[in-house]
Amino acid sequence: MTATTSTGRRRGRGITTGWSALGFISPAVLVVAALLYAPFLYTIFYSFTDYDGLTSPKWVALDNFKRFLDDPALTTSVRNTLFWVVGTTVVPVAIGLLIALLSFGIKGGTLLRLPFMLPYALSGAGLGVIWGFILQSDGAANDLLHLLHLPGADISFLQQSPYNTIAMIVAMTWQQSGVNALLFLVGLQSIPTPPLEAARLDGASGFRMFRHITWPLLAPLTTVVIGLSLVASLKTFDIVWVTTQGGPGRSSETLAVTMYRDAFVSSDYGYGSAVALVLTLVTGAVTVAYLRFQIRGQEKLR
């Protein structure tokens, strides 16, 4: 009888604790729902409508998506987005890894990494302002190339395609390399000592050590770094809008810039919502595919 009573009391306390926990987390859940989920659901709804923000939304079914596929600017936006994916995923990750390897375990390594870390404190808009000044016609970049008698002094970097996209990718690489180096440095510090000592006893050093020991042990962190860079590159907007606003002639637009222009500049919220939904689906699909590919690769190595 006593055991049954004790069990009942514990169950009662568990139920009370569960309701108390729900009461504590419910405000946060409501805030997240109001600020994230509700706008996303509204975006899905508006993507199937013709809506200018003033009149009532008019249901048009899949017309916005058909218009998206027929849009002449689609090819340019997709091409530039792919440039951003490759340029801001491969190059900053490779440079960040190189910085981490060269500065790890040496005296003054922190000072060596510091110049690469500082640009990450800048926002995308701030980065666009700085590099817009450098790359504008007859700007600092042209003056420097002219002073050094190097080719390219007469190029308008922000006015000619694909130079404008390449120049902005270089600017983003300057910003992102430092934080990637910091992440890889954390990974290097977490590598256990015994495998490294065993490899040294076997005569491994230099590139051989990196290829067979360090790089495989960094694989989980590399998956995270590349994944973050991949998602960020697909959503590239602020630096492009501040630097070129997608011009000239929409030649440097990405999918995110196309979405912003159509929704908030042209007040075509239905079409802009359709572009945003497509961009969300593409980002999610690419991320899932990449993670599944990495997981399968790691399982084969086990």
From TrEMBL:
Pfam families found in the cross-reference section: BPD_transp_1
Superkingdom of origin organism: Bacteria
Keywords: Cell membrane, Membrane, Transmembrane, Transmembrane helix, Transport
UniProt domain ABC transmembrane type-1: residue ranges: 78-290
TM regions (residue ranges): 21-45, 82-104, 116-134, 166-188, 209-232, 269-293
Membrane topology: Multi-pass membrane protein
Subcellular location field: Cell membrane
Major place of residence: membrane
Transport keyword on record: yes
Family: Belongs to the binding-protein-dependent transport system permease family.
The protein, known as: Permease
Lineage: Bacteria, Bacillati, Actinomycetota, Actinomycetes, Micromonosporales
